[in-house]
Amino acid sequence: MKASKLVLGATLVLAHACTADLQDSTSMSGSGSGQGPGSGGQIPRPGGGSGGSGTGGGSGGGTGVVDTRFNFRCQDETAEPASDLRRLTSEQIRNVYGDLLTDTVGNVNDQRGADERLELLPEDLASATIDYARMSQSVGQAHVDAYHGSAAAFASITTETNARLSSLMGSCATNGNGGDDAACVRNFAESFARKAWSKKPSTVEVDFLVNDVYAANGIDNDAVRDLVTAILMAPDFVYVVERGGQEVPGHPGAYQLTGYELAKRLALHFWKSIPDEELLDAAEDGSLLTESGYAAQVERLVQDPRTIRAIDDFFEQWLHLDRIPRLDANIGRADFRAYAGEDLPGPELSDRLREDALDLVRHVVWADAAGTLADLFTLRASFARTEDLARIYGGVDLYQDGAAPPELPAGERAGILTRPAMLVNDQATTRPSCGS
User: Which of 432, 204, 420 is nearest to 319 (CA)?
Assistant: First the structure.
């Protein structure tokens, strides 16, 4: 697997290969020694070598000029080419928060704060130019507000009591031993960022989180909340950030995915969420990049119940099941009521048609060990769970979970394409028109 190498434009730390000059803008009376570099000084690249030295020592009297403008520029010869970042879908963000809450504080009874904020996330929608909702990449103020609100709510929930704080950070956060507080905070910053970002944070990133974001002595709940919020607002959490590892031989500009990048792709693909600890460990020790290690992790991910929601979502979007119209929209019209007769649809029928189609998919994918793609288009099984849907199928027996589905009469309906979900519309007219 390959990924285009990119540079993250807005990170918690300075991007490498870029420098900044401070420009004079405001003067104040007074004198100064003028200590510091002269013109041409560069900000060192994080984790790398130092920038070029200034051309002057800056000694001598000064006017006390206050510099307030940053002009950033990148060195063309060392700057990495930029590439688009793919953001997580709104559904993936919701799933990630649910998994993080479960992993950090267990089953929290009251998650309304986070849930209410997550509900503000704009839905990803298909359109005339976007075939599938997951391809929507628009980002507006509503996204930013929901991201920040969800992060802040999560931070509040997970630090609400000492028990939750201990579950989040470890017992060192509440044991009253001030001697290990610094190590406790740093270890938490590193481990939680690893979990949320699906990568091992660099020393520079951890230093920034501890020294600039947490910036408190001892265990301070407000500082913990700031730290958690910052991690959950970072680009590495909201976006799929792939810088790549080694360049692919014979393919200039293409780079092998790192273990962590591959782990995040797999988790988003199968679980619509982020990797768990086992997958992250496989990424860190390199086993995920081996053929056997990769196969073992894929098999484990597929068997996890979270994969069901990803399979459901794929078929729902592929078959446009999310576009089934409200079938009761025209019940106020006399001609529609006359046409429907005793089969007048209720408000739940649209959702029941959707579930009927998905039940067929689930049966072929999960219940039938020998299920094939051909079965999806030929299987003569009914998954009607309610009488109104059973009448559409001609009065078949109701389907029960765990039981073999009733078989439809030969020559009538077969497979997904003849499901009511694929055939219905919300029109109240008929062609040809029926005379009165």
Answer: 420
CA 79 → CA 12, 45, 51, 159, 356, distances in Å?
A: 18, 11, 14, 40, 53
Q: What mean pLDDT comes out for the span 400-415?
A: 87
Neighbours of 184 (CB within 10 A): 21
Residue partners of 179: CB distance under 8 A and separation at least 6: none
Note the pLDDT of residue 132: 60
Distance, CA of 270 to CA of 24 (rounded, Å): 53
Q: With beta carbons less than 8 A apart as the criterion, state whether 117 and 150 touch.
A: yes
- Whole-angstrom Cα distance, residue 346 to residue 21? 67
Helix axes 162-169, 181-197, angle to 10 degrees: 70
CA atoms of 281 and 285, how far apart (whole Å): 6
| pTM of structure | 0.72
Of 85, 91, 3, the residue nearest 271 (C-alpha): 91
| Res 80: pLDDT | 62
Within 13 Å, how many C-alpha atoms sit on residue 425's CB side?
4
Alpha helices (runs of H) in 330-402, residue ranges in sequence order: 334-340, 349-362, 373-378, 387-392
- What pLDDT digit, counting tens, does each position of 90-102 carry? 889 989 998 998 8
**Domain ranges in the chain?**
18-79, 87-314, 322-423
- When mean pLDDT is compared across 194-208, 225-239, 318-332, the lowest value belongs to 318-332
- Given a cut of 90, is residue 16 above it in pLDDT? no
Of 96, 143, 139, 153, nearest to 120 by C-alpha is 143
From the CA atom positions of the chain, what is the Rg in Å? 29
Nearest of 401, 384, 404 to residue 393 by alpha carbon: 384
CA separation, residue 71 to residues 8, 9, 26, 78, 96 (Å): 18, 15, 16, 18, 37
CB of 158 closer than 8 Å to CB of 192: no
